[in-house]
Amino acid sequence: MRKGYFGNFGGQFVPELLMPPLIELEAAYAEIGQSPQFRQELADLLHNYAGRETPLTFCPNLSAKLGFDLWLKREDLLHTGAHKMNNTLGQALLARKMGKSALVAETGAGQHGVATAAAAARLGLECTIFMGATDVQRQAPNVARMQVLGAKVEAVESGTRTLKDAINAALRHWISSQETTHYCFGTAAGPHPFPTLVRDFQTVIGKETIQQVQAQTGWPPYLVVACVGGGSNAIGMFQPFAVNPELAQVQLVGVEAAGSGRPGCYHSASLSLGRPGVLHGQYSMLLQDENGQIEPSHSIAAGLDYPGVGAEHAYFREIGRVQYEVINDRQALNAFHALSAGEGIIPALESAHALAWVLENRGRIPQGKTVVVNLSGRGDKDMDIISEINNRQVN
Amino acid sequence: MSRLQTKIEQAEQAGRLALIPFLTAGYPSLDGFWKALRELDESGADIIEIGVPFSDPVADGPVVEAASLQALENGVSLSWILQELAARKGHFQAELVLMGYYNPFLQYGLSRFAEAAAAAGVAGVIVPDLPLNEAAPLRRALALTGLDLIALVGPNTPPERMQEYAEQAAGYVYVVSVMGITGVRQGLPPAVKATLERARKAFPALPIVLGFGVKEPGQLKEVAEQLDGVVFGSALLKHLQAGGSAEEFMRQWVQA
C-alpha cells in the first residue's frame, strides 16, 4: 500500500504549510513512539492514571432475554468517561517528548476536548480546544469540565458551527502555532499520520478484548460491534481482530447513526450512504452534495455527528472485512434504556447505537454465541437530552 | 511558454509588478461578481484568480470564508462557473486562474474538469489543499489540456521540498507570506525576505508572486525587488463588502 493510504483511502490533502508538522509528527512517532521507554511510560499512565485495563462485563439479564451471551468492553469506565483518553494520553506524551509546549484539539460532544484537557494538565502542556458554537451550547457541562482542567475553549462561529467547523478552526490554528503546538486529533481520520497514530493508541481496546474473551468466555466471539462516527473506538476494537488471520471468522459490525431515520433527514452515515471524497486532509467516504460541498450531518449522539469517517473504515468496508450498518435515534434510545434499567449501566448515546444494532438483529444471532459490544463511553453527559425527551413525551 | 508566465513577464518588461486580484465566484452576488470581474480586467489586472467556493475552506481567513459561504448560498457551483466563463470566453485581457479546494474538482471529474476549464479559457489552477504528494492526478489531467497547476510554498517549506515542487511547477510560484491563513495583516513578517530568497533559488525559471496578508502597495517596498507579482484577496473582498468598486480598489495598485 502507498504510504499513508489504506487501499485507495487516506492521504495528506492539506495546505503545504501543514506538511512540515505532519512530516515531523510521522518521524517522531516512528522514533520516539516506538521506543520501549515511551511504551512503558504510556502503559503506566494508562494503568495508574486512566484506569486500564477496563473490564469485559457479562450482561446476565439481557443475555437471558436474548438467548446469546452479551459482553461489554467497558471503555465507559476509563478516566473522563470514554475511550478518548487512550489517544490523548498517547499524543500528549508524544508531544511532550517532541518538545512541544501546547496542545490544540477539536471537539464535538466535548469528550475528546475533556480527554485532551485532562492529558494536557497531567503532562504540563497548555491546551486550546475549538468547539462549534452550537456544541458549546448543547454540551455546556463538558465546556465547564474543560475549563476547570485549565483549557481555553474557543467557540467556532463559522459554517454549521459544529464538529467539522471546529476541525477547520483547529487546523488553521495549527498552521500558525506548529512550532510550539501539537494538534491532538481526536479520531482515526484526518491527514496521515493521524489515522495510524490514533488507531495505534486505540488498539489497546481490541488487544485487551481478545485476551479477556479468551480468558472469560467461549473463545472466539461470534460477533464484535462498535459505533462509528469518525471511527476511533471502532477501529481500536476491530483492527486487532481484522489483522489476525486466525480470527477471520469473527464478524465485525460498525454502526453508524441514521439520524431520525425519516427519508431525507440529516444523518451521519457516511460509509453506508456517502460517496468518496476529500475532507479534513483525507480521501474517504463523505456526506456531500453533487457539487462536492460537504453536507450537514446529524445524530442524537453528538459524538457520531460528523460528515466524514476514518479512511481505514472505508478500506475495511471496501474489502468486506467489516460490515457497516445504521441505527436511528429512536432505536439508540431504546437500547440506552434497556441497558440502563436492565444491567445498571448508563451508556453514552453513541455506544447505545452499537448495542441497538445487536438488539434489533437478535434474530440473526445464533443461540449461545458470544457477542461483544464496545461500550465506548458513559451516558452521564446525555442526561439533559434524555430528560428533555422525557419531558416532551409527558407534555 | 505558459500564458501565465508570459503575462507576468509582460508586466516586468513594463517595469512593474504583475497585479493578481482574487475574487470569489458569485460574490457579492451573481451579477455583482461579473461586474467586478470586468472592472478588474479593465483596471489593470494581469491575472485574476477566481475563487471556487467550498463549504470547508481550511486555509482561508474569515473574509474569504464568509465570501465562499455567501457564494454557495447564491447557488454557485463549479459547473456554473465553467459554463458562465465559457459563455464569456475571449472577453478578458487578463489571464484567468481558478483557485479552490480539491473536493469540488474531484467530484466534477479531473479530466472532465481539465477539458471544461481549457474550453472556458482558464489558464491555470491553484488548489490550496493539494500538496506535492497528492497532486499528480490533477497535474496530469491539466497538462493534457495545457493548463498550469500552480505551486504554493511558504515560510516553512524547506529548500529540498521547494526543489521537488520546482521539478513539476508551471505558470508561477505562489509564495505564502505568513504562517497563517489568508487575510489582511498590517505589516509583512521579516521572514518574508528569506522565504522569497529561497523560492528564487529553487524556482530560477518561474515568476514569483506573493500573497496572503497583502493589503496595500506600501507593504511591499522592502520586498518589491524580489517579486514578480502580487496577489490580493481579502482586502479586495472587504472593499467590495463595504460597497466599494473593484475599479477604485485597483487604482491604488496601478498608480503604485
Structural overview:
The complex is a heterodimer of chains A (395) and B (256). Chain A has 395 residues and is of the alpha/beta class. Chain A has 16 helices and 14 strands. In chain A, the strands form 3 sheets. Chain A has a 6-stranded mixed β-sheet with strand order 3-4-14-9-10-13, sandwiched between helices. In chain A, strand 1 (5-6) and strand 2 form a beta hairpin. Chain A is globular, with a radius of gyration of 19 Å. Chain B has 256 residues and is of the alpha/beta class. Chain B has a single domain, classed as Alpha-Beta Barrel (TIM Barrel), CATH 3.20.20.70. The A-B interface holds A 11-17, 19-20, 158-159, 164-165, 168, 171-172, 175-176, 178, 275, 277-281, 286, 288, 290-294 and B 54-59, 61-62, 65-66, 69, 72, 77-79, 101-108, 128-134, 152-158, 161, 176, 178-181.
Largest interface: A-B, 32 and 43 residues
Tally of individual helices of chain B = 11
Q: Any idea of the CATH topology of chain B?
A: TIM Barrel
Number of strands of chain B: 9
Radius of gyration of chain A: 19 Å
| Tally of contiguous helical segments of chain A | 16
What's the CATH class of the largest domain in chain A, please?
A: Alpha Beta
Q: State the name of the first-level CATH class of chain B.
A: Alpha Beta
| Large-scale geometry of chain B | globular
**Biggest β-sheet: strands ordered side by side in the sheet of chain A:** 3-4-14-9-10-13
Oligomer: heterodimer
Largest β sheet strand count, sense and barrel closure of chain B: 9 strands, parallel
The low-pLDDT segments of chain A are none
Low-confidence stretches of chain B: none
The helicity of chain B comes to 40-55%
Q: How far apart, in Å, are the first and last alpha carbons of chain B? A: 28 Å
Main pleated-sheet profile of chain A: 6 strands, mixed
What string, H for helix and E for strand, traces the elements of chain B in order?
HEHEHHEHHEHEEHEHEEHH
List keywords for this structure.
heterodimer; A: 395 residues; alpha/beta; Rossmann fold; 2 domains; six-stranded mixed β-sheet; four-stranded antiparallel β-sheet; 16 helices; 18% strand; globular; B: 256 residues; TIM Barrel; nine-stranded parallel β-sheet; 11 helices; 44% helix
